[in-house]
Design brief:
569 residues, Immunoglobulin-like, Thrombin, subunit H, 8-stranded antiparallel sheet, 5 helices, 43 strands, 8% helix, globular
Length: 569
């Protein structure tokens, strides 16, 4: 594996003047000779810096990555994959962008690595904070815009060296402080990137346009108010994409989808983001800010706990517990708890809240009652609680062969865990201490020979190992757990789903296709991972290949995928 470095020089008026006056030839763009084997390159941002907010830094890097896709026909896209804590130049097959507070004479540096085939496998970008960075606007004096630097450095990360054309984005020096001209690629930059990633069409994809019609920017709401959200999105290539809008809150995370919905938000100032991604991979976003007032600190203390036996929504609209917490049911049956200090949290979902013997119970979407332990929920069965909390402690382990939902509504395993199927086929496990966790999805839970099995959405049974799931094939388990250990490696030429439902490779890994064309790998120790998406898995000459959503075949290297083109291996 080889490493290369490219640096971006600070403003150098003398150097610019020298090049401007004495250069007599124009060589143009320069390629490093290396390119990515895939047409989507994910990058992660460590936004921690001393100048701008984390969100502003992330937005600036996203803006710097966009021109290489939006202004060219190159078959390549830089994809923002989230945040990272990484802050060092290292080969870890994870493209990381970060700041470093040092006294370097450079504005930024990009390092990259390539493998024996010449393809890029990793690229890290570092911005030096001896320069005063700005994001979006407001730059003054000897300031530098993050996005203006990022677009140049991303060019290196994609395989371009410095250009000899003055004014090109890939020219080695900045035109001036507070410059933003780098964001407009020159014809030389475009020719360079398209030479590395030849266009596959003559038309250019453009990002969707998103609008938010409700609520209005800056709107304020009372605590516990149900807020209506509405928006629309259109795309020049895909048309109306309103149904694909994803809505998030800076406080509550994902809050809804589509063109309209309503829900209750936690107290505080929320940055609401509506975003949609088109079929070409470009994303459009719109943001507004709204505020939700805190609950009155005296609202519960003056009234005291609710009467024993209070039921929401049957006999009251809310319950006040002994600690002064107010319990209500929000939109989508969210169970909301507002603490005396006004902070609000969502704690699962259900259709009823019951206050009995100083205990909160919720009637879940699976037909069972759950007792609040103070930190989580404990399944206490389908009968309305009578005030005691010993429903499960006197229950014995479920009989061998119990099947949810065929023969029972829940399974109690040998460790005292209660297994149920929740909404959207979520597999829920409630531990003896009351904490509940979601462990994948499936339509059946089977208790056989002291082992939990789940029938997955891909038509295979999975055995619970205590920390994850192990694929044991499509046959209903008979009680043993040796399904895969006695299985030989799949025959050469096996194709999923054409000739088989799974592939077992030489290392004992089981390869299947899950929902949404997810490529799933289950290791011999039962750990399951997601490795991209595709419609076919092919086992040929002891090698795994996947037919990707872009109509190209990809070869598994053991740590990632290499694009080998549209022809079947």
């Amino acid at each position: 594996m080889k490493q290369t470095i490219r640096r971006f020089l600070p403003v150098a008026v003398a150097l610019i003047a020298t090049v401007w006056v004495f250069r007599t030839d124009v060589v143009g763009y320069v390629s490093s000779g290396h390119a990515w084997a895939t047409n989507q390159v994910p990058y992660y941002v460590n936004p921690s810096n001393i100048y701008v907010s984390n969100s502003a830094a992330i937005s600036a890097f996203q803006a710097g990555a966009l021109p290489w896709t939006s202004q060219t026909l190159a078959n390549i896209q830089l994809v923002y994959a989230g945040t990272t804590n990484g802050s060092s130049i290292t080969l870890n097959n994870k493209n990381e962008v970060f700041f470093r507070n040092d006294s370097s004479s450079y504005v930024a540096e990009t390092y990259w690595w390539y493998d024996g085939t010449g393809h890029l496998v990793d690229a890290d970008m570092m911005l030096h904070e001896n320069n005063h960075f700005y994001a979006g606007s407001g730059c003054t004096g000897a300031g530098v815009y993050i996005e203006d630097v990022a677009v140049h450095e991303f060019g290196h990360a994609l395989g371009l060296n410095h250009s000899t054309v003055l004014g090109a984005t890939m020219y080695p020096t900045m035109p001036g402080y507070c410059d933003m001209t780098q964001m407009s690629l020159e014809s030389d930059d475009i020719s360079g990137i398209e030479s590395l990633y030849p266009p596959t069409s003559t038309s250019k994809n453009t990002a969707p346009t998103v609008s938010i019609s409700a609520p209005g920017n800056g709107a304020s709401f009372a605590n516990g108010a149900t807020i209506s959200f509405a928006g629309s999105a259109s795309d020049s290539q895909d048309g109306n994409v309103t149904s694909s809008i994803a809505w998030t809150s800076s406080i509550d995370g994902a809050i809804g989808s589509g063109g309209s919905f309503s829900r209750v938000l936690s107290a505080g100032s929320h940055v609401i983001t509506a975003s949609v991604r088109d079929s070409g991979g470009l994303t459009g976003t719109k943001q507004i800010t709204i505020s939700v007032a805190a609950a009155s600190s005296s609202s519960s203390s003056s009234s005291g706990p609710s009467p024993d036996g209070t039921m929401v929504p049957t006999t009251a609209s809310q319950i006040v517990d002994n600690a002064g917490n107010i319990w209500t049911i929000g939109s989508n049956q969210l169970i909301l708890m507002t603490a005396p200090n006004g902070s609000q949290s969502a704690n699962g979902s259900g259709s009823k809240i019951y206050w009995k013997s100083s205990t909160i119970y919720v009637y879940g979407t699976d037909g069972n009652w759950y007792q609040w332990t103070g930190s989580g929920w404990r399944n206490v069965g389908s009968a309305t609680p009578g005030g005691t909390t010993t429903t499960t402690s006197t229950t014995t382990v479920s009989p061998d062969g119990t099947m949810v939902p065929t023969t029972a509504s829940q399974i109690l395993d040998s460790a005292g865990n209660i297994w149920t199927i929740g909404s959207n086929q979520l597999i829920l496990m409630t531990a003896p201490n009351g904490s509940q966790s979601a462990n994948g999805t499936g339509s059946k839970i089977y208790w056989k020979s002291s082992t939990i099995y789940v029938y997955g959405t891909d038509g295979n049974w999975y055995q619970w190992t205590g920390s994850g799931w192990r694929n044991v094939g499509s046959t209903t388990p008979g009680g043993t757990t040796t399904t895969t250990s006695t299985t030989t490696v799949s025959p050469d030429g096996t194709m999923v789903p054409t000739t088989a439902s799974q592939i077992l490779d030489n290392a004992g890994n089981i390869w299947t296709i899950g929902s949404n064309q997810m490529v799933l790998v289950t290791t011999p120790n039962g750990v399951q991972s997601f490795y991209g998406s595709g419609s076919k898995i092919y086992w040929k000459s002891s090698t795994i290949y996947v037919y990707g959503t872009d109509a190209n075949w990809y070869r598994w290297t053991g740590s990632g995928w290499v694009n080998i083109g549209p022809i079947q291996p």
